[in-house]
Amino acid sequence: MNAAFRFDDWDTPVPTANPPIPTVNRKFSPKMETPDAASLAPTNAADKRIVNGKADINQLAPFKYPWAWEFFLKANRNHWTPLEIGMAQDVHDYQHKLSAAERHVFENVLAYLTTSDILAMRNIGLAVMEKMSAPELQIYQARQVYEEALHTWTYQHCIESLGLDQQEIYNRYRVVPEIHGKIALANRRLERVMRADFDLTDRTNLHEFALSYFFFAVIFEGCWFYNGFTPVFALQRRGLMKGAAEQLQYIMRDEVLHCAFGIRVIRELLIEENLTLDPDALRELWDEAEAAESAYAGYILREPILGYNAELHVQQFRFIANRRARQVGVAEPFPGAENVLPWLDEQANLRKEKNFFETRVTEYQTGGALAWD
Fold first, then answer.
1. Cβ–Cβ contacts within 10 Å for residue 208, how many?
2. pLDDT confidence of residue 289
């Protein structure tokens, strides 16, 4: 092996082509070598803030937001990979049991999710995490970035296991208007705040950031993702595509934690910054999100499948939206919306005993530990 590519010889001196440059003796210079007095001052946890903090970003503790550290610990207790779940029965189901309408639903849900989780990963890693000024917040979000990548791996694992055309599936968000509409809306709502030079000391920008993060955490993750797995869960309830559905259950529990963290951040941010989200701006957000979700539901469920249809999907979106609004502390966007799919929460809070010889037990702490109302 070329010595230049070896990494197991830490004690071997690095060969030099030229003789070493002799050290030049310099007089001690206090100006050069004495640290600035301000750099020696200890920081105070009270100076930490969600954004625009004054404390040392490299100093984790003492915590100002101990709940953020707890989110990180919970997320690590929920570790999993898609390879732990068998997909052999799904291959048989997909090829021999699903109707054309059911394959259409399954494929397009997968096509939407493949793009959505990459978008989520980029938004957290490139926009939100960079602007959070308390390290305990950033550390959980670093885990969240990993989990979004893990979810993307999971969809890819499903695509590969089922032998689907990867280029065709991944391109659907570009060629199917109803899928593209949701992604385009997310990009438009998140694009400006992803800039590194987006100044959060400006109150107008701060409000835009809070609104953008509200869209991401509450609508994108808390409603679209939470509601988005439902068509596949409807198949699972009939004994179909159980491996893929179990994969989505793992993802859903991660997303439950992401949403809960985001809601907590929003509530703290509004208090810290003495900020109120503009009701008209929120109304516009909800209306855009509902319109995009309705169009998407109309496409993926253009033919109803047994036990599930587009109207149920949209009604459940409205119900979940009201729940998220209550959690943040803003007005419900769709008063009177009913819980038309009461079994959906069971998918997040699953506590069933499983046959050890069929699959690993998927008992999670996340679903049971989070209260929705």
1. 17
2. 96
Burial of 101 (0-12, 13-18, 19+ CB in 10 A): middle
Encoded tokens for 133 = 């000024």
Q: Is the bond preceding residue 62 a cis peptide, omega within 30 degrees?
A: yes
Q: Which two tokens stand for residue 232?
A: 């596949």
Asked if residue 325 belongs to a domain, the reply is yes
- Decide: 136 and 261 in contact? Cβ < 8 Å: no
Helix crossing, 242-272 with 66-77: angle to 10°? Answer: 170
Whole-angstrom distance, CA of residue 242 vs CA of residue 344: 15
For residue 194, give both structure tokens: 């992803």
Tokens representing residue 23 in the block: 């050290």
pLDDT in tens, 293-348: 999 999 999 999 998 999 999 999 999 999 999 999 999 999 999 999 988 887 66
CATH number, residue 186: 1.10.620.20
User: Can you count the helices (H) and strands (E) in the chain?
Assistant: 16, 0
For 5, 20, 21, 240, 361, the CA distances from 17, given in Å and listed in that order, are 17, 9, 12, 66, 59
Answer yes or no: are the C-beta atoms of 143 and 63 closer than 8 Å. Answer: no
Provide the 8-state DSSP code for 83.
G
> 50 near 137, Cβ under 8 Å?
yes
Q: How many domains does the chain have?
A: 1
The amino acid at 99: S
Structure tokens belonging to residue 193: 């705040």
Of 312, 216, 282, 206, the closest CA to residue 255 belongs to 216
Is 187 part of any domain?
Answer: yes
Query: Exposed e or buried b for every residue in 30-56, given b needs 16+ CB within 10 A?
Result: eeeeeeeeeeeeeeeeeebbbbebebe
Of 175, 187, 159, 215, nearest to 299 by C-alpha is: 175
Q: Is 43 helix (H, G, I), strand (E, B) or coil?
A: coil
Cβ(174)–Cβ(89) below 8 Å: no
Tokens (6 digits) for 144: 């969240």
Query: What range defines the domain where residue 156 resides?
Result: 87-360
Any residues with CB less than 8 A from the CB of 200 and at least 6 apart, and which? 51, 52, 131, 206, 209
Its pTM stands at 0.82
